[in-house]
Amino acid sequence: MFATQGASQPTQATGRVEWIDIHVHLVGGRGSLQDYQAAIRGALGAMEESGIRKMVVMPPPQIYGNPGNHEYDSFAEVLKRYPTRFAFLGGGGSLNPMLQAANGTEVSNDLRREFEDKANEILQRGALGFGEITAHHLSHVPGHPYESVAADHPLLLLLVDIAGRNNALIDFHFDLVTEEMKAPEWLSSPPNPRLFRPNLAAFERLLEHNRKAKIVWAHAGSDMLGNWTIELSRRLLVRHPNLYMSLRLAPGRAPQNHPLSRDNEIRPGWLQLLRDFPDRFVIGGDQFFVSPSVRGGGPGVEFSQRAPMNRERTRVFLAALPADLSRKIALENAIRLYRLKD
Q1: What pLDDT is recorded for position 272?
Q2: What are the b/e assignments for 137-161, b being 16+ CB within 10 Å?
Q3: Domains of the chain: which residue ranges?
Q4: Which of 4, 184, 233, 330 has the lowest tally of Cβ within 10 angstroms?
């Protein structure tokens, strides 16, 4: 049992649940108004308020030409001032645009070399791995790109090999489609297509390609298209020992697949899944923190307004778990998987 001092259960003194968030974004603005230090101050305040021990920060999965594009080097040096509170991933603003632009299956040697050089540079600069990378990313609001490539794209297979060689991981956003389906009415089309085609088989080929590469499938629980069921998670976790899942406790569009019921109780099927795979889940809140220098709206600003709710739902979820399981999912799995140090 792990219900010892420092466990992730609420304490009588604080009433808080301690946890690590392995999926966080910063919005620092552009040009002369860029101020990631202010965004980090906002993150530190939320950490103190909510009992978050550490955060892993990464750029969102971007495409060429999107306003506000940025990469890990926009914030990494500032994060390094707080080595006990932050770590980072890279590639969302460099590798991912290269991937999305190379949508075909043919990749030139020059592009492969450029991609590999950038990936190696990211690791050399202190990143724990690559993120946020996507093969299928829905557009939810204006300015939020729709992105789609084959999950077994040659550049993704190359990235998996690089991760495997370097004991690194990949934070992977992947909106799952198990069979051909029409886009739900709540999704704007364009930019989203009107018809989604199956992508699960290619994802499994990616997982099989190099078992040394750890792939963390982002946003488990907040399913958007209704395909990411408990049963499918179980099947993939059995088949693929290098697959991990990060839980986002924000509501998705398929409440039947969410870990929490409307009464904020953990659904029995989810509890059994977590008990059967206690070492394969971490918390990835998908929190956005925006610098006050940022003017106007945009996806990051809109998503940042949901962060307090996400933190509260995470607290409720972790507090409802058995103490030993809560500590693993809240803290221990992240420390082991991401090789985090105090």
Answers
A1: 99
A2: bbbbeeebbbbbbbbbbbbbbbbbb
A3: 19-337
A4: 4
